[in-house]
Write a structure and sequence with these properties.
491 residues, alpha/beta, seven-stranded mixed sheet, four-stranded antiparallel sheet, 15 helices, globular, disordered N terminus
Length: 491
C-alpha cells in the first residue's frame, strides 16, 4: 500500500496503529534525524516474489550437478530437513535430563565417527572444516607444551587445502611445505630431510587433492612419529575412502571430519556447516568439550582431562549434526561401505572418457584416482588462449555448475572435478559431452567460449571490477550513496 507523507508517496509494508506508537520520548534535538528514514518497505507479496526470483536465478545441487572438486557437493536427502527440526524446540541451557534424546544422538554419532575413522574418541564441537583444522593444531600445540617441548614447525603437503597452512599459522607455527614428487605424492626423501626435533606434526589429507592415494602413508607415519610428531588428517577428502580405509589404520593421530561434505549436510554460501574431530591414544584427552558419555543408563556431558576448551558455543551445530546422523542411519553399514567405492567409480569413469581429449592433460595418467581428478587445461591455453576459467564459464551455459578451478596451485590451469557417488551415469555422460563440446568449440571459435556464459541470469563479469572494494555493495546505505554519486564505482 502507499501512504501520503510530507506530500510524497511512500511505500509502506505494514500498518502500525497510531495508539501503539504514541510514545513520548525526550530526544535531544542535535541527535534527531533531519530526513526521513531511508529504509525500503515492501509488501509480503513483493518480498516472496523477490526471493522466489532469486532462487530461480540461483544454482544448487537440487537443480544439477555441482562437480566442485574437494568440496564434495553431494545430494542432501530431504528427510534430513524434517529431522533437523526436532532440535529447534530445545534450548542449549536446558538441564541434561530434559535433552536425553539429543545427547543419545550425539553419543551414537561420536561412536560411529570414531569407528569409521579408526580413532578412539570423537568430539562434535566443530562448526566447520577450518575450525576442525584449528582445533587439531591447538591439540598438537598443547600436546607438545604439556611435554615441555619446543616445537615451532608444522609440515604441510603442497597438495593441502589452503586453510591448512592458515590454521597452522594461526596456531603460531612456522609453515614448512613438503613438495610433491613427479607422481603427485608426498616426496619421501624431502620429508626425511625436513623432519627434525622442531617438527610439531604433518597436516595431510589422503587421498590428496589430486585425488591420488598416498601409497607411502605408513612410511610417512613412521617418519613423523620417529620424532614424536603428530600426524593430522584433513577430512575434506574422506569421501574417497569412506567404507574402504580408515585414517587411524594409516597412522593418523587426529582426524577432522566435514559433516557438511562427507555426510551430506548442506553447505555453501558461507554455512552453516558442521564438523567433528576425532583422536586416538594420548591425544584423545585434548579434544574440545563437551563430549557425551553414558553412565548408568543416562547420557551426561564430559570434559576431557587436557581439553583445549571450546571451539564453538554450547554443543556445536547440533541442527546439522542430526542431519548427518539421519544420513548414516539411512545408509546403514552396507550403504556407508559403498560411498568410497561409488565415488571412486564415478571419478574413474569420468577420467576414462576425458583423458585423451585434445586440450586437456593429466598428471600421472597411469594412476587411478579416488573421489576427484584434476585436469590441466594448459594445452588449450597454449593452443588457443582459452583458460580454465573460460571452460568453467562455458559449463554454466550448459546447465552445469563449474568445477573448482586453479586449485591446487601445483597444477597449471587446473580443473578440479568431483562427481560424488550421488550422480547417476546419465548425468556424468551429459557432463562429459558438455566438456568435450566446449573443448571442440574452443579450437574452432575460441572467442565464442571466452564470451560465455550467455544463458545465465548474470553474464560474464569483469573479474577486476567484481572483486574491487568499490564495487561491493555491503548495505542499502552504500547503495543509496552510490546512487547519489557520493561513493564512486570503479569504471
Amino acid at each position: 500500500m502507499y501512504e501520503l507523507s510530507s506530500n510524497k508517496k511512500r511505500k509502506q509494508g505494514i500498518i502500525i496503529p497510531e495508539e501503539n506508537i504514541d510514545v513520548k520520548i525526550d530526544i535531544p534535538e542535535k541527535i534527531k534525524r533531519k530526513n526521513d528514514l531511508e529504509i525500503p518497505e515492501l509488501s509480503e507479496l513483493e518480498v516472496v516474489r523477490h526471493f522466489i526470483r532469486l532462487s530461480q536465478q540461483n544454482f544448487g545441487v537440487d537443480l544439477g550437478m555441482m562437480p566442485l572438486g574437494s568440496c564434495t557437493m553431494k545430494y542432501n536427502p530431504k528427510v534430513e530437513e524434517l529431522t533437523s527440526r526436532v532440535v529447534e524446540n530445545y534450548h542449549p541451557l536446558q538441564d541434561e535430563d530434559t535433552v536425553q534424546g539429543i545427547l543419545e544422538m550425539m553419543y551414537e554419532m561420536q561412536k560411529w565417527l570414531a569407528e569409521m575413522t579408526g580413532m578412539d574418541e570423537c568430539s562434535l564441537q566443530i562448526p566447520a572444516g577450518a575450525a576442525g583444522e584449528l582445533a587439531g593444531v591447538l591439540m598438537i600445540k598443547k600436546y607438545h607444551k604439556t611435554k615441555n617441548r619446543e616445537r615451532d614447525e608444522m609440515l604441510v603437503a603442497d597438495t593441502a587445502h589452503g586453510t591448512n597452512p592458515a590454521s597452522a599459522a594461526m596456531g603460531g607455527y612456522k609453515v614448512i611445505y613438503i613438495k610433491s614428487n613427479q607422481e603427485g605424492l608426498v616426496d619421501i626423501d624431502i620429508l626425511k630431510e625436513v623432519v627434525n626435533s622442531k617438527t610439531a606434526g604433518l597436516m595431510l589429507t589422503n587421498p590428496n587433492t589430486l585425488g591420488l592415494f598416498e601409497e607411502n602413508i605408513l612410511e610417512i607415519s613412521k617418519i613423523i612419529h620417529s620424532v614424536d610428531g603428530v600426524l593430522y588428517y584433513d577430512g575434506a577428502n574422506l569421501n574417497g575412502i569412506l567404507g574402504i580405509a580408515r585414517p587411524g589404520d594409516m597412522g593418523f593421530d587426529i582426524v577432522h571430519i566435514n559433516l557438511h561434505k562427507t555426510f551430506a549436510v548442506p553447505h555453501g554460501g558461507g554455512g552453516p556447516g558442521a564438523g567433528a574431530i576425532c583422536a586416538k591414544g594420548e591425544l584423545k584427552e585434548y579434544l574440545p568439550y563437551p563430549m557425551v558419555d553414558k553412565e548408568g543408563g543416562k547420557y551426561v556431558l564430559r570434559t576431557p582431562a587436557k581439553t583445549i576448551g571450546k571451539i564453538a558455543s554450547f554443543y556445536g551445530n547440533i541442527g546439522n549434526v542430526i542431519r548427518a546422523y539421519v544420513y548414516i542411519l539411512g545408509l546403514g553399514p552396507q550403504g556407508v561401505s559403498q560411498v568410497g567405492k561409488m565415488s571412486t567409480l564415478a571419478t574413474n569413469y569420468l577420467i576414462s572418457k576425458l583423458k585423451d581429449v585434445k586440450g586437456l592433460e593429466l598428471l600421472a595418467p597411469h594412476r587411478p584416482r579416488k573421489h576427484e581428478v584434476v585436469f590441466s587445461a594448459k594445452p588449450l591455453l597454449n593452443d588457443k588462449g582459452v583458460t580454465a576459467l573460460d571452460i568453467a564459464k562455458a559449463l554454466l551455459d550448459r546447465g552445469f555448475y563449474a568445477p573448482t578451478i586453479y586449485f591446487p596451485g601445483i597444477i597449471e590451469e587446473a580443473l578440479m572435478i568431483e562427481p560424488t557417488e550421488t550422480e547417476p551415469k546419465e548425468t556424468l555422460d551429459k557432463f562429459i559431452e558438455a566438456l568435450k563440446e566446449i573443448l571442440e568449440e574452443s579450437y574452432k571459435d575460441p572467442e565464442k567460449i571466452r564470451q560465455t556464459p550467455q544463458n545465465t541470469s548474470v553474464k560474464r563479469l569483469d573479474q577486476v571490477k567484481a572483486n574491487h572494494p568499490t564495487s561491493v555493495t555491503p548495505s542499502y546505505r552504500v547503495l543509496r550513496l552510490r546512487e547519489k554519486g557520493v561513493i564512486k564505482i570503479l569504471k
